[in-house]
Design goal:
The chain is α/β, with parallel strands linked by helices. The chain is 39% helix and 15% strand. The strands form three sheets. A seven-stranded mixed sheet has the order 2-8-7-6-5-3-4, sandwiched between helices. Strand 5, helix 6 and strand 6 form a beta-alpha-beta unit. It catalyses: (sulfur carrier)-H + L-cysteine = (sulfur carrier)-SH + L-alanine.
């Protein structure tokens, strides 16, 4: 039995060798705590932390490295940005394709009568219409918060058009890049972003437990820190520092994770972002075309590969979703995910609620033989 990993939308595996080596090297040879100690190991950690901020800022075309904030994952990043920025009476717009990392904080604010919330319904293929956003903007609309690409079917949203709309109406634009960073080009300035939330362990090839966000100076002025505590700076004061990055970085940072994330981005830069996208796209096209010709396979996309990342959702007619997922893993060694993928409204949008879908998500480390084996395995299950 083969061992094929197709759960990369959850977390990429394997990781590049330089990522693994960098974490091992930090833990065995450096180990210092940045911003807390002046000994040689602490200073070496400081230098690595600065290099990591520079690497991330350059990767997303952002200038001020102090505006690069590290958290433990993108969920923490989004909660910080949403709960720290939303004020009483604000109107916020999002979409039906969002992950619960966006939806749950927003629904919580709405239910506590803090914000007005509109959720724009995408079409059955998972795409939003920019005109729907134009038509619902109010004088008190302060934020549009969107995922760049769906974690259910990989649909890529018209982010540049939404960014232009936000600029025209002086609306803050917060982007969830969990499924797009490391696969699609994300230019902070060109997209008119106010904040970009990212996570390390998906297509940026870093380890679990590291994420962060980049915040514009304008949004920083109104965004309050979500977690308060020690920063290594202004230790005499009982008030949280108001300067970046300390304002949002309380407690010891995950330096092994930060180093691994930095090396993941270096790997992407060395391979080429376009090279990674083209390979993923080729494998997705091949898999989609074969599945589309397979009897009783239900696919949830419009078959136009240019509008999707390498994430595919499907079901097999008259078979339970969880059972298909289990058989793929137990009988064929194909690692996948089934269910609602923490995005219930997305499944309602594409017509797969409440059972959800089987999701196959590709990575740069997959190859054509992986896809051939997967196609053959699914063919046997269908038969």
């Amino acid at each position: 039995m083969n061992n094929i990993y197709l759960d990369n939308a959850s977390t990429t595996f394997p990781k590049p060798k330089n990522v693994v080596d960098s974490i091992y090297n930090f833990l065995t040879n450096i180990g210092g705590n940045p911003g807390r100690s002046n000994h040689a190991n602490g200073m070496q950690s400081n230098r690595l932390l600065l290099e990591a901020r520079e690497t991330i800022a350059n990767f997303f075309n952002f200038t001020n490295i102090e505006n690069v904030i590290f958290t433990n994952n993108i969920t923490t990043s989004l909660n910080t940005l949403i709960n720290g920025s939303a004020k009483k009476g604000d109107h916020i717009i999002t979409s039906s394709m969002e992950h619960n990392s966006v939806l749950r904080p927003l629904i919580n604010l709405k239910e506590n009568n803090i914000i007005e919330l509109d959720i724009i319904t995408a079409n059955k293929f998972g795409f939003i219409n920019v005109d729907d956003f134009k038509n619902i903007i109010k004088p008190n609309t302060k934020f549009i918060i969107l995922t760049h690409a769906s974690n259910v079917i990989g649909s890529i949203q018209p982010i540049k058009e939404i960014g232009n709309l936000c600029k025209q109406h002086n609306i803050h634009f917060i982007l969830d890049s969990a499924q797009s960073a490391g696969v699609l080009d994300i230019n902070f300035k060109e997209l008119n972003l106010s904040a970009l939330a990212f996570t390390g362990h998906k297509s940026l090839f870093g380890p679990q437990g590291i994420g962060g966000f980049i915040i514009s100076d304008e949004l920083n002025e109104i965004c309050n820190p979500y977690i308060l505590g020690g920063t290594g700076s202004l230790s005499h004061s009982l008030i949280q520092p108001n300067f970046l990055p300390d304002k949002f970085e309380s407690g010891t940072l995950n330096m092994p994770g930060i180093v691994g994330l930095m090396e993941g981005i270096k790997f992407i830069n060395s391979e080429g972002l376009n090279t990674i996208y083209e390979k993923n796209n080729f494998l997705r096209n091949y898999l989609i075309s074969e599945l589309n010709n397979m009897k009783d396979i239900i696919l949830y996309d419009d078959l136009d590969s240019s509008n999707y990342t390498s994430c595919i959702s499907f079901n097999i007619r008259n078979l339970d979703t969880a059972e298909v997922s289990f058989i793929l893993d137990s009988d064929y060694g194909i690692k996948n995910r089934s269910g609602l993928h923490c995005a219930p409204l997305a499944h309602k949008t594409i017509g797969s609620f409440p059972t959800g879908t089987v999701r196959l998500s590709l990575s740069y480390f997959n190859n054509k033989s992986d896809i051939d084996y997967t196609i053959n395995s699914l063919s046997k299950i269908v038969k």
